[in-house]
TrEMBL record, chains A, C:
<dbReference type="Pfam" id="PF00441">
    <property type="entry name" value="Acyl-CoA_dh_1"/>
</dbReference>
<dbReference type="InterPro" id="IPR009075">
    <property type="entry name" value="AcylCo_DH/oxidase_C"/>
</dbReference>
<dbReference type="InterPro" id="IPR037069">
    <property type="entry name" value="AcylCoA_DH/ox_N_sf"/>
</dbReference>
<feature type="domain" description="Acyl-CoA dehydrogenase/oxidase C-terminal">
    <location>
        <begin position="229"/>
        <end position="366"/>
    </location>
</feature>
<feature type="domain" description="Acyl-CoA oxidase/dehydrogenase middle">
    <location>
        <begin position="123"/>
        <end position="217"/>
    </location>
</feature>
<dbReference type="InterPro" id="IPR013786">
    <property type="entry name" value="AcylCoA_DH/ox_N"/>
</dbReference>
<feature type="domain" description="Acyl-CoA dehydrogenase/oxidase N-terminal">
    <location>
        <begin position="11"/>
        <end position="119"/>
    </location>
</feature>
<dbReference type="InterPro" id="IPR046373">
    <property type="entry name" value="Acyl-CoA_Oxase/DH_mid-dom_sf"/>
</dbReference>
<dbReference type="InterPro" id="IPR036250">
    <property type="entry name" value="AcylCo_DH-like_C"/>
</dbReference>
UniProtKB/TrEMBL annotation, chains B, D:
<dbReference type="Pfam" id="PF02771">
    <property type="entry name" value="Acyl-CoA_dh_N"/>
</dbReference>
<dbReference type="InterPro" id="IPR037069">
    <property type="entry name" value="AcylCoA_DH/ox_N_sf"/>
</dbReference>
<keyword id="KW-0274">FAD</keyword>
<feature type="domain" description="Acyl-CoA dehydrogenase/oxidase C-terminal">
    <location>
        <begin position="191"/>
        <end position="319"/>
    </location>
</feature>
<dbReference type="InterPro" id="IPR036250">
    <property type="entry name" value="AcylCo_DH-like_C"/>
</dbReference>
<dbReference type="InterPro" id="IPR013786">
    <property type="entry name" value="AcylCoA_DH/ox_N"/>
</dbReference>
<dbReference type="InterPro" id="IPR009075">
    <property type="entry name" value="AcylCo_DH/oxidase_C"/>
</dbReference>
<keyword id="KW-0285">Flavoprotein</keyword>
<protein>
    <submittedName>
        <fullName>Acyl-CoA dehydrogenase</fullName>
    </submittedName>
</protein>
Length: 387, 325, 387, 325
């Protein structure tokens, strides 16, 4: 057992140096606005030019074949430098792992390089109005046609879809099958004929997600991932990634915690708030060390990923609630902390509500019995799968 | 001792609830947020007697009636009514208590009649809806000033809370009565804001219970799940115990305990309403997180009011300072 | 609406004066010890001699016919004076209300005066090893015999039974009936033939409750309360009392909160703990005002009693956890605050776990649907009904 | 970088777990609490190498091995082993670091061999099991003293924690090395106590999960109820994230971050273990509240250790003081 990071220090130094030279001096506009989206897309191109947009991918697709530890270090440096949010994260964190596991060589070569370069920004299309937490209840269809599929139906809570280029999601390809069966995993362009994108404002009014109305949208066979009808199994590899470290790397919280401690000191280091600030610091550090533990393990962490999801999402809320309380009467005013707070509130809801995660922990990690009935015991309605 | 509302007080609340239900506040809130401070509802509230509650009879009011004020603000909170209502009520107390007869005669009857929208800056030099107000008050150490907007609007998480930096313009009154009046106005504003928070929290609980009864996931209403039940039971418990603190504070109006009691009410109302808002968001899932879903207006207002009219920490300090003997 | 207490001020002054003259200068030994039990029993006699042991009862049975408001005022003064804990509380708060609702005149006259005088101390005998939260699952039997009943079986978590004189509880009198049916409410002496009392130490080792083994214990018909077979309905009136105000009157928390604030100041008024102390003060005051609201209402509070139970039990734990944190490293040492802490930990468990109370609140106050199956949805295993 | 235990470290933990399972600690704890500080288990632990972990090789030890020390204390916590074990380990560090060769030669080999039970007073002048110790250490500003019991036993919520007021007896060493040694001993004690708390919490979680699987109410195992599931999931989450802090702190032994890191570990371990204890009590119901049910010994020890070796507030202060630049 050791925490010897000396082998990755040269990589850390390179990343840090590059970021110091390249991170924009002034923050980019919010990526949930049209202007900000364009600026963040351009930033992805800048990152890609330095082969820093997808460090853990193979070189062939724009990465560096970085180890998980190098990726964690990259993330620490990235957020410590105050670099822009990652507008490509849905593609990089959700779609790409699925493609690595189930994609054809042709798909990998066609899809990944433009994703790495920020040329194609991806949105997820999981949830439907009647299928939030209960993803298996989805009803949007993919109908077999010559050379491909026709998509019909409605998707919702599609993060970034207001401005993104393409989307991926699950569709019911066998209308007779129920629940997890008969689903197919497909990719489709958001500017295709038959696609209508209706932006939805989140809590602070910014169009952070959208509804997608699909009316006979044609998708060629080459845009099916994995076998038709096997979409549920294909998607589950993505879900594991979401709940593990990739969705929220420790670096994000370490940097935010440093800012929180600084904010607390700037506002007089109020002893009334000291213990909450200390707890955030301790929890962020615990999350960092847990990350090192996770990448040191050789076994599959499986359902333990749910423990991570509950932890980081509650840490993020606590961190931002503490910041707003430090700001006092100014806490309600527009600004970075308020935007971070609003963003944090989605954490316990999406990618599987924390109620569902706690069921998973109890049943699959602790081995408690399922309810003595057909269905799984789960929590409140919510979307899943947005980034 | 009879610590429940009487029939008349209950009827007053029900009347306001009906009036506000018919007014359809969500559309009004969105218009207000967009910069259209329509006064139709303001006049209707005045007609129902809301503003008169803080204005004494000799200036055409019916006040002070702090219990009825809590009843009214609970209903206004329940409907998330926009505008500087708490500010106008507090301003009435400020003007009345400052003791300048001319000022009182000029403004109090107009406040009671709903003809004057008044704002003030209870904490930082920021006033709600300053661009829409007929009068903005700023209380200094021994001086009362009128004020004017002094900068662009500051956007709040609650889009209907349009805050403006303000600067003093004209001196209205001086003397030791001014800080006393400012303190009295502050305490009344805190009480009104507490009641508003309770109404907001109650509305969020009711909406969420209804949603949990009808929204189905995994083949059944999500309200059947024990986790949802326990969340909502906790929200109710918080609100049920915050309410008597607000009414208890109203009944101590005029006593030395009033500042302590309104602070206790504000802490409990803020915590209970905020817990209800977080639970509402969690049970609704993504829909509650959207701008276009009406209850999100309530959720945002709760977070904003939590630190308006004094932060919870400030009020906890006031409570313990007051029981230091 | 008013909070005018002037009408009860003379009563308050009388109680306060009597307590000032009569409350022992040094605290009595813990009532969970044999010596302390005897001292507390004697104190009940002293109270009774001043007609202050059961102020809300009719004069005929030793009370004063005090109004609910007077009772609240009595409790405020009682705890503010630091008067001894009430060793008779199981009888006064649980059995007596049941007798007033369902007892015969003969039972009232025979049972109540010695209870009021502290001559007979009562223990409850609700729970069984297999029936804690799920009280309807109980199995101890009452078998019809000539002139009465024979009790057999085992009861447990019987508070105070280590030193008490008599007990009351539910027994299955119709072996063919299931769950809530076929139960009978009975009283029996703890020194009767066939009764074995095994004291059980609570968390701090004090024998605060006991197991009762019943082997053909004879109970005459006159000690059945209500109709045989109707025990469940008879017992429910007691349950309502438990969850409402009588089990934990506001006065108890007001006095404890005053001591907490004083403790906090004595230890330097640490700002790190200020908000927790303030919250306890606010919650205790809220509980007082809620009590005034409850007695002002003319309707039955019904399931809303569960809201009270959850509130006071969590307040009590928070109050004592705060006190122990003020004491810091001394918090683990024997003393009044530690004893209060241990006592408070039972609050969320007994008289129906807080998980069950939350189900009741959700289903019966908020109107959320029951689980779509036969059984009620409830919480973890626990005893109920001790005081 | 490989932040998981290696095979040898895991085997060490498993060996201790087996040894302690066979020893049957609940009976030992009750005897210890009754005033019978039997040393059989102490010797067995020494033979397994526990005390050598804090003693350097030149004094017949194998240390310092802070990671293995966390492994060992986790298992000792898991079995709620009574006695001044943390104190003896910390004392070894104190004696070694104080730099008095004679003192070291006298005591360290005996500590490693399990022949010396040593206590000390990390906070207030109170030492655990002072009546059973061969040596009691008391560190003053620049002076190290031996000490002796100075009053009757103070009863703790954990009956196996027998605390005694102590008074200085004989001066053992002087000089600036003493406070440094005392600080090093304190930090190591904090780390050991953190690991002990994690083991206690883990044992309570395991016991409670097993209870929830088998205890039936309302016709089914209580572990089917969502409220029970969520309580236990939260307990697991707390413990899962406290563990890496303890091992991370062990790895920073000798670095300037060590005091900060052990404090962070203690805060997280205290909170996680205390949460596990509260949940264990709530899920068990009345049975968990009884003296005679073995897990209640674990519950009581957790509450006592929460404020031993520094309160959570003291450690939070140390954490923030350390990241003040």
């Amino acid at each position: 057992m050791d925490l010897d990071l000396s082998a990755v220090e040269p990589f850390r130094a390179e990343v840090r140096g590059w970021l110091r030279r390249n991170v924009p001096a002034a923050p980019l506009p919010s990526l949930e606005t049209e202007e900000g989206f364009a600026a963040h897309r351009a930033w992805e191109g800048t990152l890609a030019a330095a082969r820093l947009s997808v460090v853990s991918w193979p070189e062939a697709y724009g990465g560096r074949g970085a180890s998980p530890l190098e990726w964690l270090v990259f993330e620490e440096e990235y957020y410590a430098a105050g670099a822009p949010g990652r507008v490509s994260q849905n593609g990089i964190n959700l779609l790409a792992p699925t493609l690595f596991a189930h994609g054809t060589p042709e798909q990998l070569e066609r899809v990944l390089p433009p994703m790495a370069a920020g040329e194609v920004i991806w949105a997820q299309a999981w949830s439907e109005p009647g299928a939030g937490s209960d993803l298996a209840a989805l009803r949007a269809t993919a109908t077999r046609v010559d050379g491909g599929w026709r998509l019909n139906g409605q998707k919702t809570w599609s993060s970034r879809a207001a401005f993104a280029d393409r989307a991926f999601g699950l569709f019911r390809s066998d209308p007779a099958a129920e629940r997890h069966r008969g689903l197919t995993y497909l990719m489709f362009p958001l500017d295709a004929d038959g696609v209508t994108v209706r932006p939805i404002g989140r809590l602070d009014g910014k169009p952070a997600f959208a509804e997608l109305f699909l009316d006979d949208v044609f998708v060629p066979d080459r845009d099916v991932i994995g076998e038709p009808g096997q979409g549920w199994a294909v998607a589950m590899s993505t879900a594991g990634n979401e709940r593990g470290l990739t969705l929220r790397s420790p670096g994000r919280f370490l940097a935010a915690t440093d800012r929180l401690v600084a904010l607390w000191r700037e506002h007089g280091a109020d002893p009334l708030l000291r213990d909450r600030v200390a707890d955030v610091w301790i929890r962020a550090r615990a999350y960092r060390l847990k990350g090192f533990e996770t990448i040191s393990r050789t076994d599959d962490i499986g359902a333990e990923a749910s423990v991570n999801k509950v932890f980081w999402s509650e840490l993020d809320v606590a961190l931002h609630e503490t910041a707003l309380d430090i700001l006092g009467a100014d806490g309600e005013l527009e600004g970075d902390w308020l935007e971070g707070y609003v963003f944090s509130l989605a954490g316990p809801i999406y990618a599987g509500t924390n109620e569902i995660q706690r069921n998973v922990i109890a049943e699959r990690v602790l081995g408690l019995p399922r309810e003595g009935r057909g269905g799984r015991q789960v929590g409140p309605g919510a979307k899943r799968g947005s980034g | 001792m009879k610590f429940v509302l009487d029939a008349e007080q209950r009827l007053f609340g029900e009347t306001l609830h009906k009036l506000l239900t018919e007014a359809g506040t969500p559309a009004l809130i969105r218009r207000w947020a967009a910069g259209d401070p329509d006064r139709t509802l303001w006049s209707a509230l005045a007609e129902a007697g809301v503003f008169a509650l803080a204005v004494p009879e000799r200036h055409d009011g019916a006040g002070p009636l702090p219990v009825e004020l809590v009843v009214a603000m609970h209903e206004l909170g329940r409907h998330a009514v926009p505008g500087p209502i708490v500010e106008t009520l507090a301003a009435a107390v400020l003007i009345d208590t400052a003791g300048d007869e001319e000022l009182s005669a000029e403004w109090l009857p107009r406040i009671a009649a709903g003809e004057a929208v008044v704002s003030l800056a209870p904490g930082p030099r920021r006033a709600l809806d300053a661009d829409a107000a007929d009068l903005i008050l700023l209380a200094g150490d021994e001086e009362l000033w009128s004020a004017a907007p002094d900068g662009a609007v500051l956007r709040s998480l609650d889009p209907a809370r349009r805050l403006f930096p303000v600067a003093a313009r004209e001196r209205l009154a001086t003397g030791p009565a001014v800080p006393r009046a400012a303190a009295a106005a502050y305490d009344l504003g805190v009480l009104a804001c507490s009641a508003q928070l309770l109404g907001l929290g109650r509305a969020l609980l009711d909406t969420t219970v209804e949603y949990a009864r009808t929204r189905r996931q995994f083949g059944r209403p999500i309200g059947e799940f024990q986790a949802v039940k326990h969340h909502l039971a906790d929200a109710l418990t918080g609100l049920e115990f915050a309410r008597p603190l607000a009414y208890g504070a109203a009944l101590s109006f005029g006593s030395p305990d009033f500042p302590r009691d309104v602070s206790a009410a504000k802490v409990a109302a803020s915590d209970a309403a905020y817990a209800a808002a977080r639970i509402a968001l969690q049970v609704h899932g993504a829909i509650g997180y959207t701008d276009e879903y009406d209850p999100s207006l309530w959720i945002r207002k709760v977070r904003a009011l939590r630190s308006a009219w004094g932060t919870p920490a400030e009020h906890r300090g006031r409570v313990l300072d007051a029981c230091s003997h």
